[in-house]
Amino acid sequence: xxxxxVYFWHFTSSGHRRTIPQNIKMINFIYNxxxxxxxxxxxxxxxxxxxxxxxxxxxxxxxxxxxxxxRHMPSIDYFYRLVDKMEILNLNKLHLHLSDDQGFRxxxxxxxxxxxxxxxxxxxxxxxxxxxxxxxxxxxIGDNKKYGGFYSQExxxxxxxxxxxxxxxxxxxxxxxxxxxxxxxAYPEFANKTAPEKVxxxxxxxxxxxxxxxxxxxxxxxxxxxxxxxxxxxYIHIGGDEVVENSYDDPSDSEKIVKEIMIYLNSKKKKVxxxxxxxxxxLETGNLIMNWRNIDIGIxxxxxxxxxxxxxxxxFYFDYYQKNPISEPLVIGGYLPIEKVYSFKISNKLRExxxxxxxxxxxNLWTEYLNTEEKMDYMxxxxxxxxxxxxxxxxxxxxxxxxxxxxx
Length: 408
Hints:
The strands form five sheets. An eight-stranded parallel beta barrel has the order 3-4-9-10-11-12-13-16, surrounded by seven helices. It has helices spanning 22-57, 76-88, 112-118, 153-165, 181-186, 214-230, 253-267, 279-285, 295-303, 313-316, 338-343, 348-353, 373-380, 383-391, 398-404, and strands at residues 8-12, 15-19, 62-68, 93-97, 99-100, 103-104, 120-121, 147-148, 169-176, 235-239, 271-275, 288-291, 307-310, 320-321, 333-335, 358-365. By secondary structure, it is of the alpha/beta class. α2 runs parallel beside α4 (153-165) and α6 (214-230) crosses α7. It has two domains: 1-38, no CATH class; 61-404, TIM Barrel, CATH 3.20.20. It is globular and about 55 Å long. Helix content is 40%, strand content 17%. β12, α9 (295-303) and β13 form a beta-alpha-beta unit.
């Protein structure tokens, strides 16, 4: 469409001039305003059509974010603010990591010793002052400050309701059969071989695991009964990662425990998520894995017919340094600049072939060295902006993205 202009030319012996009568001015205005509006409407619907096409073809069903509440525990109010941000970024799953070796963060009414004992540790390690396999000479130094707490069932139910109104599903995780030292300190009778002497105060992988017995599994089932009452999510995460070799005399015990809990939760109409160490068990029971290690593990699971949420640490672990470590606060390690987050792609060929099995993507924030909410936010942003583009299938041009987000 072209804009209209109507006017009269007046020719005289001295030259010529142009005039626009008042009524013609009004015609010009009305016509041109209609043209302007029609172009705006055309652009609007073109944009809507384009966005709709993108959302149908490229947006992942699972657009998740995990927060570790165990190593350091944000306030319940923090999650309200986070849900608001997730709504803006079109993220729809908030995965709460609620139990580990260093604490247990949910009120469990049937077993009061969980919150009396497992929810608190006597202190927290200072910086990296603890021995590891690679640095056995380092001496442990703690801060001598009791740390911990737990979320009440009522406040979690309110959060779940609020999040649902914002289009965000909260997915709880209770980690079994490993990463369970805090729970076994409170109830040592359910430990296999050895129970911990206290809630763990530093970071790593520990040999404390759940015993493969009817009593132990009933104990875990009862805990999950209360978790299911609090969280009405379609999905529930049960961990399954990093079980120390030789923790069980029969190495298959860990898979047997996970399988039994999976089947139990499936009977309660829950779909179960596990970390990718339990890929075989997930496949056998029709449940899904969260692929946190090499992406080839997730692709192999797809080929076998399993469902996968891609959460590879090299792209989506936001506890890694985002800039030069020399100028950054202390974190767990690694290096993950925003450009790499933005670059994650599952090929179109793979997505088309396994469209029904690729559930989505998730970013994870582990909190070993993030002892304030300000530090958590610093590690999340601006990388979460880049992740949201990945999750929505819009990560096309990092330069344009950077300009749009004022990153350059």
